[in-house]
Design goal:
Layout (H helix, E strand, L loop, with lengths): L5 E4 L14 E4 L5 E2 L11 E3 L6 E2 L12 E3 L6 E2 L12 E3 L6 E2 L12 E3 L6 E2 L12 E3 L6 E2 L12 E4 L5 E2 L12 E4 L5 E2 L13 E3 L6 E2 L12 E3 L6 E2 L12 E3 L1 H13 L5 H9 L3 E3 L2 E5 H5 L4 H38 L16 H9 L6
Parallel strand pairs: 1-2, 2-4, 3-5, 5-7, 6-8, 7-9, 9-11, 10-12, 11-13, 14-16, 15-17, 17-19, 18-20, 19-21, 20-22
Antiparallel strand pairs: 22-24, 23-24
Helix pairs in contact: 1-4, 2-4
C-alpha cells in the first residue's frame, strides 16, 4: 500500500489547507500563480506543474527538503525570491524558453543541484540566486541575460567553467566569490564593468584570463586571492583598475596586451619601418617587450606602478602604432588608386608609371599630424 499523499492544488487554497504529510502535488490546469509560501517546509517529493502557470511566488517551495526534481512549464515567466531555497535534495531543474526572471536566493543552498541551462529569454538572475549551490558543476548562460546579481554564484565550489554572454554589461559584487574550482572564465565583447568588489575573489583554481576590448573597469579586489592566476590579458581601453584587483604577486607572472602586440607584429612583419621597434622602446618605459609582445611584469606591479602611469604609456604606444598604420594606409590608398587607373587604361598600356597617383605631401603631412604624434 502506497504511503504517498497526493494533493491537487487549484490556486484558491490557503496555506492551512495543505496536508502536512503531502508528498505529491499536482497543479490544476487553471492555476496561473503559486502563492507566497504556499508549500514552504512541506515534505513534498514530487511536484507536477501545469501548462498555463506563469509565476512561482516568494518562498513557494522554501525548505522542501524531499523535493528531488522539477520541470517548469513553457508558460512560466517568473521564479520569485526564495522560491526553492534550501531544497537540499533538488538535483534536476529544467528551465524552458519564456522564463524571464530568476529571483534572489531562489535556489540558494540547493546543495545537490549539478546542472543549470538558462534559456535565452532569461534577462535577470537575482542576488544570491544560486548562492552556496556547492554541487553545481555546469552552468550555461545564454545570450539575452542582462543582469547577474551580487553573489549569484558565490560559494559554488564545484563550478569549473563559466562563459559570460555578450549581453551582460556588468558583473556585480562577489558574483563568483569563493568558486574555488573555477578554472576557466570566458568574458565576451560587450562586458563593460566588473564592479567593486571581490567579483572573483578566492577563485583559487583560475590560472589565466583575458578581458574584452569593451571593458573599462575592473573593481577593487576583483581577482584578489586567485592564488594560481599567472597571466592576465588587458586592453588599452581599460580606464580604471581598483585597489588590489590582482593582489597575487607570488603567482601572477605578467599582464599582457594582446591588441597592441598584434598591431606591432603586423607592422614588423610588413618590414617597411625599420625604426618602429626602437620608437616603441623609447616610450614603453615600465612595459616590457619581447619581440612584438608587450607585457607588464609582476615585478613592476609589486613595485607600485599605478594603472594611471601604465595607461599613459599604453596610450603613447597606441598613438605611435596608429601613426605607422596610417602611413601604411596612405601607401595602400595610393596603390589602389594607381591600380584603378591602370585598369581603366587600354590593354596595350606601356608606361604604367604614368598612371601612378601620389597623395600630395601637404595632404599626407596633414593626415599624420592629425594624430598629434611626431617620430
Amino acid at each position: 500500500m502506497s504511503n504517498e499523499v497526493v494533493f491537487e492544488y487549484t490556486g484558491i487554497e490557503e496555506k492551512s489547507d495543505i496536508p502536512k504529510d503531502v508528498t505529491i502535488v499536482r497543479f490544476h490546469s487553471n492555476v496561473t500563480e503559486v502563492g507566497d509560501g504556499m508549500f514552504k517546509d512541506c515534505n513534498v517529493k514530487k511536484v507536477v506543474l501545469n501548462e498555463g502557470l506563469k509565476k512561482i511566488g516568494d518562498e513557494s517551495f522554501y525548505y522542501c527538503k524531499s523535493l528531488e526534481s522539477i520541470n517548469f512549464p513553457s508558460t512560466l515567466v517568473e521564479i520569485n525570491d526564495y522560491a526553492f531555497r534550501e531544497c537540499d535534495n533538488l538535483r534536476g531543474v529544467r528551465l524552458n524558453d519564456g522564463l524571464t526572471k530568476i529571483g534572489g536566493k531562489s535556489f540558494q543552498g540547493c546543495y545537490q543541484l549539478e546542472h543549470i541551462n538558462l534559456p535565452s529569454t532569461v534577462t535577470e538572475i537575482g542576488d544570491y540566486a544560486f548562492y552556496d549551490c556547492s554541487g553545481l558543476k555546469d552552468v550555461m548562460l545564454n545570450g539575452g541575460l542582462q543582469r547577474l546579481g551580487s553573489l549569484a554564484f558565490a560559494h559554488c565550489r564545484s563550478l569549473e567553467c563559466i562563459t559570460i554572454p555578450h549581453t551582460v554589461t556588468e558583473i556585480s559584487d562577489r558574483t563568483f566569490f569563493n568558486c574555488t574550482n573555477l578554472r576557466e572564465v570566458v568574458l565576451n565583447e560587450g562586458l563593460k564593468k566588473i564592479e567593486d568588489s571581490e567579483a572573483f575573489y578566492h577563485c583559487s583554481s583560475l590560472e589565466c584570463i583575458t578581458f574584452p576590448s569593451t571593458l573599462t573597469k575592473i573593481g577593487s579586489l576583483a581577482f584578489n586571492h586567485c592564488s594560481r592566476l599567472r597571466e592576465v590579458g588587458l586592453h588599452e581601453g581599460i580606464e580604471n583598475i581598483g585597489y588590489a584587483a590582482f593582489n597575487n604577486y607570488t603567482s601572477l607572472e605578467r599582464i599582457v596586451f594582446p591588441n597592441l602586440s598584434n598591431r606591432l607584429d603586423t607592422i614588423i612583419q610588413a618590414g617597411k619601418y625599420a625604426n618602429v621597434e626602437n620608437k616603441i622602446d623609447e616610450v614603453r618605459v615600465i612595459v616590457d617587450r619581447r619581440a612584438s609582445e608587450m607585457f607588464l611584469s609582476a615585478v613592476a606591479l609589486a613595485q607600485g606602478s599605478t594603472w594611471g602611469t601604465v595607461k599613459e604609456i599604453l596610450c603613447r604606444i597606441d598613438q605611435l602604432l596608429t601613426y605607422y598604420e596610417v602611413r601604411e594606409a596612405t601607401t595602400l590608398f595610393e596603390l589602389a588608386m594607381w591600380k584603378s587607373k591602370i585598369d581603366q587604361a587600354e590593354e596595350n598600356l606601356i608606361n604604367r608609371d604614368a598612371h601612378r597617383i601620389d597623395i600630395p605631401g601637404p595632404v599626407r603631412d596633414t593626415i599624420l599630424q592629425y594624430l598629434d604624434f611626431r617620430v
